[in-house]
């Protein structure tokens, strides 16, 4: 392709921009400008096709393109003069108008000879001839690869291995990529281009989980006409990969951005380069895996933009575009294109089954293409078997496993061992369900011996690597944040990967014993192996209603089980009798996904859980506490979510502090029948955090709260009937955080609030106080108050008296995340 091809395309685009400006601003030239716009818009598609054909034109055709390029260049200079001409200079205006008319005539004469049409015909002929030659080259390369299969390549890899990786990542060619990705691709291009063309963006990113279409989007941007024009056709696309040869890549990029080749060693380009780069340049780094590799390959040279494509979020959030999965209609079209060679389900084929198989891919382009291709020309019975395997989290066939799951597994290779184990733990939760962050963090604290802050950092790290989706919540990561009403989600293909890796090997020796989907009963495979103990540390069961008969064939022994997750959908549920054999159980999670709270039977087995540290009950009836004959002496954390309390705390003779002597964290959330707390709760001398939230009938707190000598966190938000805080709350010697937000009937804080010398933060959004707090000036540790704008005035004196105090007028934020579908 000749230089003139590029010049003609670029100049035509620039000239059009100038003409549009003239048409809008200079009325004397409006008509001739509009006629020129029509002429150039007519020829622009032909110029672009010639420009990007990749064909080297013969000299006489290059000369003809050169004539057009010269004419357009003169027109561009002329339009610049028109735009800069003074309105009062009538003579110059008249001269320029005549030159504009002559430009129109010159372009029209050029087009009358249909020179561009002849050139385009030559392009098609030359391209057809080159395709034949390339076919011969491809066949030669295949033969050569067989001979070189065992030879080493740079970086220590094997050519045969490299080809397997390429095959795994290679896209199934079915025609125009835009047909496959539809609207989603165009939206992505538009958003990334907006960041690209912004002057302050030197480093921008495309992020997303494996197989979501990041590289496809990057390639489309590389070929995009607007991008080519903006960067004056100076675009470099490099694939970095997991085992990059960084020195070679650095040298390649340096030669591109600086124009100096063969420089060794490459300068430290993180320093400001003084070479005076005059043109815009774009470097696209695809398949970047680590921040270290990115730091080695990025630079600070004026006029250069770097686009980073990675499975991890390696750039600033505002400069990162997260690629989303396809919409349902786009996904089905892409799947059909790969399975049937057309964008619709063929007549006579089972429409429902095709939609179910495509639905299992959850809009992930790679999964759609690989699954569709693996089922191409297969009979319907084969499809049914593939659907059943996919629903169990298993690969549809060997090809599906090799090309999809192995490709996705590459996302885990850079994880440290603990983070990888945390990712695999996500397979323990049902598909398409929100996972409470609190449950995850507690699991990781117990089974991986992590500190809470490190467990949270692991969660964020998995989110940055697009291995899970962390719900956007302003509280995340802040001091005293609660996580029981914050959730994470995970794409089903990533969950399938976790299941696939966890379910390898004989069922009795697996570290995780997981049910991929909800069943009426436990898997038969489990029942066939009950003669041997199960070594699983994590056991996850997902069923409907279970009674004594349902468990009778599964008398299993779990001597190493530390975590048990029971998911079910029913209004009554018999707990599995094998819990009594889980002597090391530390975390028990019971979640009812049904519409109404379930009655739990055989709750007395809890007496055997002497090592239990965390208990999560969701949407169940809390049993009568006197049935727990033996105290749970090691229980550290208990969460009751959407439960029916049934006056369990009000039974006479029941001392809660004796039942849970080590309890440090108690959460009661969305329990609408909770009216009051028993006074014995104040005997829990180890209680560090007490959260009574979204309990609309709670009207009062125990008056002896001051006995909670270890209490640091007290959350009471959205307790609508709570009218006053007991004055004893001011006697809590270690209280650091008080949350009374959305307690709309609360009219004031206790007058002696100033006694809370350790109090650091108060959240009182939507509390309508009017009285100033005279004693609050003594809150010497107070650092942060969140309130509505119209009550901020009550803190004015405190703000003056307490140095460093921040009064934040918060925006109203309502969450209905607890209304799980």
TrEMBL record:
Matches recorded under SUPFAM superfamilies: P-loop containing nucleoside triphosphate hydrolases, RNI-like
Keywords (A to Z) from UniProt: ATP-binding, Leucine-rich repeat, Nucleotide-binding, Plant defense, Repeat
Lineage top rank: taxon: Eukaryota
Gene3D superfamilies: Helical domain of apoptotic protease-activating factors, P-loop containing nucleotide triphosphate hydrolases, Ribonuclease Inhibitor, Winged helix-like DNA-binding domain superfamily/Winged helix DNA-binding domain
GO MF entries: ADP binding; ATP binding
Domain RPW8 as annotated: residue spans: 1-149
GO biological process annotation, one example: defense response
Entries under Pfam families matching the protein: NB-ARC (PF00931), RPW8 (PF05659)
Keyword Magnesium listed: no
Residue ranges of the TM segments: none
Family label: Belongs to the disease resistance NB-LRR family.
Protein name according to UniProt: RPW8 domain-containing protein
Organism from which the protein derives: Brassica campestris (Field mustard)
